[in-house]
Amino acid sequence: MSNLFVVSDIHGHYKQFEELLTYWNQEDVLVILGDLIDRGPQSLQVIEKVIELKQSYGDNVVFVKGNHEDMLLNFLNNPMEMQEHYYKNGGKETMQNLLVLLPAYIMEQPYILQANEIKEHYKSQLAFLKLAPVYKIIGNVLFTHAGFNSEFATLEETTERDFIWIRKHYEITNKTPYINVFGHTPLTYIHESNDVWLSDDKCYIAIDGGCYMSGQLNAVLLNKQGELLEIYKVQS
């Protein structure tokens, strides 16, 4: 039976992602918990690498949408209103990364025209982000970018926004039958370390090493019962 190799919050750090993938046994399912983009230097390369992996390995690669993918899509659809919020949260680096491959004159255009050019030029990449699910269940494991509404024992009460934006859900006892693996909240805010955190009851596993701040990108290997088998990390 294949295991589950999980990584999150790459944030454009392509080299660390490539290094982390050297630990992935390709018979195992690769699960990526969102935030491929923003803040780091190579967001486009990370997106295209994940698409390439998905094309090569099919169902053995799972991508769950993060809040930064959501912010990018919202910005491109409404650049005048969303530009300040997106750029403040690391979108400026992604825009520079996307625009550098377009004709130079586009760099001088207003945000709204740049957004239209990007939507036209990167249709397949943006469609991949847009169509990604906001959670995935494999075996006994619930994979989310941010978490879920842990006040309830079922997932029906959790909104799409909660799956990609919620904070501190792990402070409430997990009433679902699933072990929740999530990113989104840098680990230093959970236990003052960049290393993977496992809750005392083993029902939550947090893996966001805060790569864009600390340079540490984490991955975990689980079985489908949600038991933690191995922990991996790379530094910039």
- Helix and strand element order: EHEHEHHHHEEHEHEEHEE
Integer-rounded radius of gyration: 17 Å
Low-confidence stretches: none
Count of strand segments: 10
End-to-end C-alpha gap: 33 Å
**Number of helices in the DSSP assignment:** 9
Q: How are strands sequenced across the largest beta sheet? A: 3-2-1-9-10
Query: Kindly state the mean pLDDT as a whole number?
Result: 97
SSE class: alpha/beta
Biggest β-sheet description: 5 strands, mixed
Walkthrough of the structure:
The chain is of the alpha/beta class. It is 38% helix and 18% strand. The strands form two sheets. Strands 3-2-1-9-10 form a five-stranded mixed beta sheet. Helix 3 crosses helix 4 (79-99) and helix 4 (79-99) packs across helix 5 (111-121). The chain is globular and about 55 Å long. The protein starts with a strand and ends with a strand. The mean pLDDT is 97.
Task: Describe the SSE topology.
Layout lengths: L3 E4 L6 H8 L7 E4 L10 H15 L3 E3 L3 H11 L1 H21 L11 H11 L1 H9 L3 E4 L2 E4 L15 H6 L13 E4 L5 H4 L5 E2 L5 E3 L4 H4 L1 E7 L5 E8 L1
Task: Considering the chains and any ligands shown, give keywords for the structure.
236 residues; alpha/beta; five-stranded mixed sheet; 9 helices; 38% helix
